[in-house]
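Hello again,

I reread your note about wanting to compare the complex against the isolated chains. To keep things tidy I'm splitting this into two emails, and this first one only covers the full assembly. Below are the input lines as submitted, including protein chains and any nucleic acid or small-molecule components. They are followed by the predicted structure of everything together. The single-chain runs will come separately.
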Amino acid sequence: MIDMTELSKKHRSPQAAARLHKRNAAQKRLKYYGILAISLSGLALAILLWSVLGKSAGALTEYQIQMEITLDAELIDRDNIERADFSQLSKDMLSNRFPFVNGRTERRGLFDIISSGAAYELRDLVAKNPNWVGQTIPFDFLASDIADLYFKGAYGQIEPITHRGALTIQRDGESLAFSSSDADFAPLLGNVRARLLARANDHRIEAALQENGRRVFNERGDFVEAAKRKNNRDFELAQAEALEALAAQPDGVFELDQFTASIFLKLGQVWVRVETISSNAGTGKILGDIANGVWEASDWQLLIYNSPPITRKVSDVQAILLETLREQGKVSSGINRHFFTSGDSREPELAGIWGAAVGSFWTMLVTIIFAFFIGVPAAIYLEEFARDNKFTRLVEININNLAAVPSIVFGLLGLSVFIGFMGMQRSSPIVGGMVLGIMTLPVIIIAARAAIKAVPPSIRDGALALGASDLQVSMHHVLPLSMPGILTGTILGMARALGETAPLIMIGMVAFIVDIPDGPTNNATVLPVQIFRWADFPERAFEARTAAAIMVLLAFLFTMNLTAILLRKRFERRW
Amino acid sequence: MKLSILPCLAILLASPAMAREEIRIVGSSTVFPFSSAVAEQFGRNPDFPTPIVEATGSGGGIKLFCSGVGEKYPDIANASRRIKAKEFALCNQNGVTEILEITIGFDGIVIANALWAPRFRLTTEQLTLALAAQGPLPEYWSDIDPSLPAIAIEVLGPPPSSGTRDAFEELVLHQGCKTTDLVACEGISMREDGAYVNAGENDNLIVSKLETNPDALGIFGFSFLDQNYDVIKGASVNGVTPTFDAIASGDYTISRSLFAYVKVAHIGLIPGLEGFITELVSQAASGEEGYLSDKGLIPLDEVQFLQNGNRVKNLTSMTADGLR
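Full-complex prediction:
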């Protein structure tokens, strides 16, 4: 018999207290580690969502420019509307609307403010309403990616600057000489001077590097090379000094270039793009029609576009055109329906996620049919009927190994068996679905076996005792009870398959496919592949679309996981 | 249960390939952005479905292309280099004897760094010294030439599997080694001691890495410089800055031709194939002011452009002459 007082004494000893303290501290530490781990992963998730959400905001809206277009009956054959050249028609409309835009580059810029797909949308609309031919109709032209980014402020903004003087203008063809009664342009010269000094600084840095070279080659005794570097240095220094001298001129006339901020004058509705400027005068190109004369200070505007042309895809002329259209109230924005309803495109403004989402749907349908209806019977057989011998154990080990095989291997299998041997079509969801199905199969078998194993033996025994056959026990009792677990496993396996790209590279689903697939044998691509492809394109506007596509994929995954949780909650049984 | 197996079987039975209606294009991921733009434009006509363009890489694409004649095999292979003699032989062996070679245009390869970082003026020889595994493996740019900035050499570029990398080795290392005694031309390749970093196939990723690392230089296609002038700038090579005009005129030397190989036997077999290649070599697409130049393709000069058009018009097959 243990003496309880002795035991209590032991437990109250200082050693015991120290041990207890240590144990409690360890427990507390474990708790904090857990909290730390969860907060870190939560933080990582929050950063991911925040950055993706932030970037995807730009893809949620799209801009349209409403312009009247005349559907010339001579150019459009009423019986053959689809073959009419609506691209040329749209270009002519733009040229007529902005007759002052001339020169090859500027005209290309003009045509580039609306999407190249807009003309084809117009074509499809007119094809539905053939009686419009011969009329002039207003049409919402989809803004190009450049125009869209400009309206969204991605390239900065044109801002007004205060001025006091009256402006005297003298026109010579398209160019304009102007002078203000005040030194209105003086504040703008800072920008131009800074640019000159920056260029001079570039030359000075290069001169210093050349000087470095001269010194080292001198030390090495290579006087020919040293002399060359000295010449280079002097050349760079001379350039720098010339630029600095130019910047120092108080009354100098400065040329604006690709690297300086752009300056505009706005006389009524007419814009002038400034080319050279001094503190109170300058020259520029007129974009519109204007007469010689004097403009009072309140009638004209001085504007600056602070980002230099080289740093933005939208040119000065394009910015002016877009501003003009915006002032005329022609520009409207709305939800980006192209993104949610179209297939892929090389034009960011036309590119949509719908084609890939439908492709993912067909692929997943084939995957679930393939994986579920092979996986579940296999699990039932292995759990309920198979004898425990060497062969079944070998099968088990292989299934567990298959679950760990890298996914690309399944792609190779699909390439050689389904496409090579069985002659099925490349890029089709049926092949993709079967490859992903094989990949998911072991996951489903393992999950299903675990779920079947979790059904208590008392259920089986009870059913057997009442005279049920083995088949009846499995189909009537075990399978229904294990279904929630099986479904959870299946959905988690499917969620993995949904995010898979590697095996699809092999079977040709990493492709540019514009048409939306009608069924599992059409050519298709899937969501993660679409994200991968868009992330690879150079156009800036694809960045937002990539992020938005990621959000769509995450929404899919979230829905699938939520379904898994709900199923489990709904059908869960406790014994 | 039984009912749900039926659609499964139906799908399986329906799968054997029907007559193919759409053109299939495979090949280089460098040509992919251009090829898909032409495919999209072609698909807008009411007569034919949009061609399917797959990015498999030049080598993988040509291998698929050369596997045989018939609906199962692709009609066009894009490549960011010329077809090799070995590949051409494989094609012939599999019955792909008549191949039409189209030059789509040029692609410049640029060396760029962050906008606020020092400006680099390099020569092919200096690039070779800096990047060749067979060279002196300098640590700083200033080790190569005292007139270069004293910055540790760190160049981000594509991995060995990339066609851009092959082209860079061909156009820079193989040229640069000829003018210096310090690097042997025999078996020259990129150094692998960490100064050259394999930054993956995604050029956008390289651009954003350059943005945050002013000491690093990146190697990628011109279209990515063209879209990102607000954050990066191109280094001049042999005194020429990489601009659209400089690459088009050939003054900027690190540029390569992009090709499309067409299976002549498929013309007539696959609907619209002839129309597609006509679109590909049209003035509106790959011409001087075509929509491909908006996408960053450097157009051919007039003579080459006309030769190209004639080859397509007469369906002149290529020969093995001059292949390597």
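For quick reference: Chain A has a mean pLDDT of 91.

B.
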